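Team,

Forwarding the record for the chain on the shared tracking sheet. I've put the sequence and predicted structure together so nobody has to dig through attachments.
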Amino acid sequence: LLGQILDHWFESEPLKATLATDAVIGAMASPHTPGSGYVLLHHVMGELEGRRGAWGYVAGGMGALSQAIAHAATAWGAHIFAEKAVCHVLLGRDGEAQGVALQDGTEVRSKLVLSNASPQITFLELIPQEQLPKDFVQRIRQVDTRSPVTKINVAIDRLPSFLAAPNARDGQPLPHHQCSIHLNCEGTQLLHQAFTEATHGHPSSRPMIELCIPSALDPGLAPPGCHVVSLFTQYTPSVLAGGRSWDEQARNAYADTVFDCIEDYAPGFKASVIGRDILTPPDLERIFGLPGGNIFHGGMSLDQLYFARPAPSYSGYRSPIPGLYLCGSGAHPGGGVMGAAGRNAAQVAIKDFRHL
């Protein structure tokens, strides 16, 4: 239990709760949920430029990371086709992968196919079910993909001024504006209460909020004096109580709750908002292909990690389809902006390719 780990090392409840957010981030779990300690470990085990557990912003926004990977690939002769939806994986007579078919009818032939899509999309939508073992299909269908995350992107015309650390008169970003700001985290019990509400189908009345202002470090993301704010919030169930869906009224009502909370910490925030984009779990699934809206392609619980990710006997990036490999967050070691699954999958694929 994460709560026991934090109680062992720390006394301050706000500090424990703030650290606890990285143990429940993206997870439909509370700090009191067994196994939650691993998610915290997952978020601090890496390093950035030699600093253990450090995180960083990508200059130019997260899309710049994708562009950097794309440029590196094309420099080695790769051809990238964007906005080309894959319809299904092409299979040979012996059931081996032979390429992919695009929705426009184009067929791309290849001896190897690596899928960065979720296991659900890869095996339940792109492969005929009769080509896969029944127990494997059942396992993929049973993966826990519940997600508590609603992401809200905000444009503001001035920097928020927090009661705890008011802005300087020149309006320039202060050190805390350049960090991850955690709100509604005064105690782990608050996080547990927010989680409990969502398990009953109700968006949290006092949501956990991680607020980042990337334009404080990267001014090119917004016009002079203006900023972009990224709000990573939870807990919001995929389906609301009574089977209700996330219509515009429900989405705006939840966003208003989030903004009211921020207003309590930084009066004037709501008046500074120019526009907002609300992405609930169903939106994250529809737009980005995240199953259930889960940012990790599946819960990072102990029963879905290591040798069991995405399924027992298939944690080594190979799949029941010869020549088809899984290289995304649904593969070992799971989600996060680190590229470990892709690197490992590529090494396995290269090893197999030499024997074809």
